[in-house]
Every structure is written in structure tokens, then in C-alpha cells.
Amino acid sequence: MRIILGVGGGIAAYKVASLLRLFTEAGHNVTVIPTEAAQRFVGTATWEALSGNPVSNSVFEAVDQVRHVRLGQEADLVVIAPATADLLARAAAGMADDLLTGSLLVTRAPVVFAPAMHTEMWQHPATAANVETLRRRGAVVLEPAVGRLTGTDTGPGRLPDPEIIYAAALKVFSGQAAPGARPLAGRTLTITAGGTREPLDPVRFLGNRSSGKQGVALAAAALEAGATVHFIAAHMDVPPPAGVELTLVETAEELREATLKLAQHSDALIMAAAVADFRPESVSETKVKKRDDGENPVITLTRNPDILVETVQQRRTLGSPAVIVGFAAETGDEDATPLAHGLRKLQRKGCDLLVLNRVGRSLVFGQDSTEITLLDAGGAEPETVKGTKVSVAQVVVQRVAEALSAAGKPA
């Protein structure tokens, strides 16, 4: 396959060297076209060494070959990474002021943009309009990842992992994801994320280690697939993704109320939040202090409602949502393995899919990578998926899209 790899002028350009290696090691012929700004981040020698092809961004080199036309005509696939705000704007406007934008204007091959920029730039109405224009014309514009950006900033705008871009590009080329195809277009998903906090007194609470990263990744994947996303956020260490309809909660009871309300108007529910199983039976109106007599306070706990079970019960009456996905964080114990606990929970809860996490102090919570096992109430063999939380989220969202299609519920 002949690929044009366009490189925009952003700090994430260095990551594209890994994407280039993925393409070349798979046997593809890659022509790298960096913008002038991109060459200030990664030099020409790097691109030539990794691609095995000469590299230029000028329309005035090899003029006799009319390269700004020929490259676009001969390409089987065009991938732009990082797609900066400026590059997206120039592509949407149909500009052709360098070799890369000229090739974009000529090519009739599938085009995949992998955006990377600061959150404010990604969320700006001008960028949103440019992305919509490109998608309307048939280009695939991936959702940026959420994470650390330049400096101390964090949020949506991070370049997706090279493996994610590579997989998306090959799907587009193979026709598994036709340009502009969005399997959840017209669907509404409710996604819960983060960890609930149950107050003990005005300054203390019972909580858990959930960072919200997996829930944010799921929301971003659902948005990329075309869904409208209601995002219910408990405490999170990362900001919610742009483009969702956001509801903020703190306690399990608040999460329950919001989930039951939104789920009945949704096609699918993904319960990724880490919900406290127990809460203090009573909450002190004043700070609980150490006693002079040395006695320790006694805290009596009571069960929180089982939101997943209640949602399944509500569906029996209302018929929605068609697909319900639960999450189970298991450590295993002397009685059973995490998988055995997960299978029992799947049967007990009554959801359609259960995402099983084996958790621990250095596992899953707060990490960028994860390993899950997907358990299907329909009897399919458990599927284990390992990778970044972004790549895992895409697998889960794809399973939701397949389940909705199998359910036959129209969008």
C-alpha cells in the first residue's frame, strides 16, 4: 500500500516516528510530507531514515514530476498526524500552499486525521466547524486522547497512541470503517465515571482510588463513533471530555438518581463509575474529633443501592436502555478467582456485558494501561483485552455498537 504520512507542526510530531515504523514494518511504502513547522520538531533525516524515501515539503522540488499532483493521485491512503488546528483549518478551507495541502486537495484516497493540540484549541468553535466539514466530506477525524499536554496542562487534545492511529487507518483502508462511518450515529449513550464519595462528617469521606480515566476514554470513543453522550461524573482526577452532556455527582445516591433518569432515554448505559458499596449510617454535622479518653469512634456502615441492578429492573418496565454494560473490580480471594467472581456477578446483576478488572494498589486505578475481560450474558467466550485505556475503550464501545445492531433497535 502506498501511504502519504503528513506530519503537522506540533510537539507530538516525535510520536509519529513510531507510527511510521508500524507502517514500514508491515511492508507499506510510505512517503512522509512534513509541514515546514513540523521540520522544526523532527528533522528530515529522521523521516528519510525510517521511511527509506526522500522527504520534502516544497512544491518547487522535482518540479518535472509535478509531485504535488502525482503523490496525491498515486496514494492509497493518507494519514495526517499530528493534525494541528492550523492544518485542520487549511484542509477544511481547501488551501494548497505547500506539498502536503496540495496533495490533500488532489487525492481521492481515504484520509485519516489524528488531531493533537491544546484543549482550548480543540474545543474552539472554529476547530469544531472545521472537523465537521472534513467529516462531512468523507474524511475520518479521530477524537484526540485525554491526558498530559505541553507544560502542565491536561485534557482532551493529546495525540492518540500510534497503535490506535495505525489500527484506525488500516480499518479505513480495508473498508471495515468506511470514511465518515460512525456506528453509533443517532444513538444516545449514558456513561458513568469516577469514584463516589460518601461523607463521614463535613471534612471526611469514604472513597476509592478510581481516577475516571477509563470512563473518559469510553466517552471519547463513543463520541468518535457518533453517539450523543450523557456523562455522569463522580470524583475524577482528569477533566471530563469535551462534547459530552455533563452531570456532576458526589455520592452513590446522587449517581443513582442521575443514572436512572438518563438511562431511560438512552440506547445504552456503560456503568464505569466505581460506586461505594457502603456509606456511613449517619453523617456528623460537625468534625469528628479525637476523644480525650482515648476511645475510638465507631462508624456503622449501611449498604448503598445497587444501581446496576435497579437499572436492569427499570428496563423491564420501560424497555430502555437496550444494552447495559457493568464494570466489576475484583481482587480474587481464597474462595474464587477474579474471573469466577465476575461470572457470578454477571449472572446476579442481569446486565448484557460485564467488564472485569483485576484491581490492586498498582493495577488499573490511576494507570494509563489496563487489562480487562469482557463477559457476555449471551454466552460468548470471555474476551481478554490488554492495552491503553483508550484502546480498551474502543473495544468496549465497538461491542456496544454490535450489541445495539444485533438488538435491532433503530437509531
SSE layout and pairing:
Elements: E1 2-7, H1 16-25, E2 29-34, H2 44-51, H3 67-74, E3 77-83, H4 85-93, H5 99-106, E4 111-115, H6 119-123, H7 125-136, E5 140-141, E6 145-148, E7 154-158, H8 162-174, E8 188-193, E9 198-199, E10 205-206, H9 213-224, E11 228-233, E12 245-248, H10 252-263, E13 268-271, E14 278-280, E15 301-303, H11 307-318, E16 323-330, H12 338-349, E17 353-358, E18 369-376, E19 383-388, H13 389-407
Parallel strand pairs: 1-2, 1-3, 3-4, 4-5, 8-11, 8-13, 11-12, 13-16, 16-17
Antiparallel strand pairs: 6-7, 9-10, 14-15, 17-18, 18-19
Task: Walk me through the structure.
With 411 residues, the chain is of the alpha/beta class. It folds into two domains: 2-174, Rossmann fold, CATH 3.40.50; 188-407, 3-Layer(aba) Sandwich (Rossmann fold), CATH 3.40.50. The protein has 13 helices and 19 strands. The strands form five sheets. It has an eight-stranded mixed beta sheet with strand order 12-11-8-13-16-17-18-19, sandwiched between helices. The chain has a five-stranded parallel beta sheet with strand order 2-1-3-4-5, sandwiched between helices. Strand 1, helix 1 (16-25) and strand 2 (29-34) form a beta-alpha-beta unit. The longest helix is centred in the last third of the chain and has 19 residues, at 389-407. The mean pLDDT is 88.
